[in-house]
Amino acid sequence: MRASWATTALLLSLTLTLAACTREQKPPKSVDDEVHRRDQALVAVVQCLVDHDRIPRSDLSGQPWLVQDKVRGSAELVEWLSVHRETVYEGKTLQAWEDEATAAWPGWRCPF
Q: What residue range is the signal peptide (predicted)?
């Protein structure tokens, strides 16, 4: 009986310790949340560059993700990004623009 009580006390103590530790930790951000932020940031960056004529029209010609000068998030936009990732617009690569916007999202604003 005494061993049973000691075991119960030990388990209760461990449970309370574990509960205290997990309460202080914030859950990790979901991968989906990070992907969503990056997608939103990419659309905002490209929209900013389009709005201020920073991307040559030849780079935009025939793009299905650009409808009446409005950027739409899509697989085609991500594909375009992969081709233009290292292209420099206004002194920064498109990748650098996207990384900067994602890090500041949702507070990122077009600098032009």
A: 1-19
